[in-house]
Design brief:
The chain has about 425 residues and is an alpha+beta fold. The protein has seven helices and 23 strands. It starts with 6 loop residues before the first strand and ends with a strand.
Length: about 425
């Protein structure tokens, strides 16, 4: 897969007034990715507010409540493309009370841009956002030291912030961190390099986004195929057809490969790989395909096909890190529903081991778990789940918890 065909999902995170929305507006504006009528509308709004220049943050702060308060509340998504790559940006909230919004957005991101105000340096929010990014397994981190124009483009100030941030990040499971000085307001080091920081020889933000390698962000080792649908047309030439439809979440599969169907444990071989455009000899994650098998095996939605030489865990008990999303606190005395890939089962919380203070990383025992809290829990399910550790496979290591009374999603979890 080349960068020309890749889609990069990334989010921005930072404390209030660090310039996240302005940065995204600058990216969209300088990469020629906004329409004239959009620019005209925000120019008029900026003029009404008495601003000397166009407020580019208005491109993402779309909610009326946000515009009134001057902060980002919901996750605002924007789409744009350059000749090298397509992008989906998530502008996430900076305030602690919207932790759940950031966790939701970061769970599918390839990269996180963490903004720091050069005047303020590394704050509590910076540490919290970095911890959340590491918790949900974001592979690439960009530390964007913004508002360098406010500190006279000082290299010493930039270096001081980078040293402090890397010292904190060393405590977490983060492997790829790029630090970039910039001014989103002026435009230095966002898309264009500008003339004010010639001492910085690294990539601009756009150069990093266009060239970061994400081909290995998907697990290519372990074949995982959750069955979404059993296809039995029973008409015409397809009268005897029986295929299993779904998306390959990890690895690859070739005609003739031996597969095991879990949780039952029966094994067979792949007969055909069927797609809309015809049969394939080999298919890879994240392709959606229909597989036919050499033997008649009882398979239904929620089962998972894996290669017999790379088995996942099959269990009714597991531990996980979890972000509680509901306004109602977790109730250990009631049952919930877990949705894991295509499998839906009832569950109970066997234990709540500790809650993590996302600002200090301290573990607090015997907690009450409220909205936005991050907790380590142990769950017991009514039927076995087929899963991997989240650190090995984000797709098969994640789940959501649903309130069976209201059908609301109340938690998102990462299996340990």
């Amino acid at each position: 897969m080349t960068t020309q065909t890749q889609l990069l999902r990334f989010i921005t995170a930072g404390s209030v007034d660090d310039g996240k929305s302005t940065l995204i507006g600058r990216l969209l504006h300088d990469s020629k990715s906004i329409f004239e009528d959009q620019f005209s509308a925000i120019a008029k709004t900026s003029e009404k507010r008495g601003m000397a220049a166009v407020d580019l943050s208005l491109l993402t702060d779309g909610l009326q409540a946000e515009r009134e308060q001057g902060i980002t509340i919901d996750v605002a998504y924007r789409y744009f493309a350059t000749p090298k790559r397509k992008f989906i940006i998530g502008d996430t909230p900076g305030h602690e009370q919207y932790t759940r919004n950031m966790v939701t957005a970061a769970s599918t991101a390839n990269l996180t841009v963490i903004l720091i105000d050069a005047r303020k340096g590394v704050l509590t929010q910076t540490r919290r956002h970095t911890y959340l990014a590491s918790l949900v397994g974001v592979p690439h981190i960009v530390l964007a030291v913004n508002k360098m124009d406010m500190v006279e483009y000082s290299q010493a100030r930039f270096d001081e912030i980078v040293v402090e941030y890397r010292a904190f990040a060393a405590q977490l499971d983060l492997h790829d961190i790029t630090c970039i000085p910039m001014s989103a307001l002026v435009g230095d080091m966002v898309v264009d390099r500008g003339d004010n920081m010639n001492w910085y020889q690294g990539p601009t933000l756009m150069e990093k986004l266009e060239n970061v390698s994400i081909a290995h962000d998907v697990n290519t080792r372990d074949f995982r195929f959750p069955v979404q649908w059993v296809c039995r047309p029973q008409t015409g030439e397809y009268h005897d057809f029986r295929g299993f439809m779904g998306r390959i979440e990890a690895g690859q599969i070739t005609v003739g490969d031996e597969v095991t169907i879990l949780p039952a444990g029966r094994s067979t071989r792949v007969k055909e790989i069927v797609t809309y455009d015809g049969n394939l000899p080999t298919a890879y994650a994240p392709q959606s395909v229909t597989l036919t098998l050499a033997d008649e095996i009882d398979i239904s939605r929620g089962d998972m096909m894996v290669k017999s030489d790379a088995m996942p865990h099959v269990s009714q008990d597991f531990s996980a890190m979890m972000c509680w999303l509901s306004e109602s606190p977790l109730d250990r005395n009631r049952k919930y529903i877990i949705k894991h890939n295509t499998r839906v089962v009832k569950c109970k919380f066997a234990s709540v081991d500790y809650r993590v203070d996302v600002n200090t990383l301290e573990q607090q025992a015997n907690p009450v778990v409220n909205m936005n809290d991050i907790a380590h829990v142990t769950l017991k399910t009514q039927k076995p789940l087929v899963f991997d550790a989240y650190s090995r496979n984000r797709a098969t290591g994640s789940f959501i918890v649903i309130d069976e009374a209201t059908n609301n999603t109340v938690a998102a979890g990462m299996i340990s």
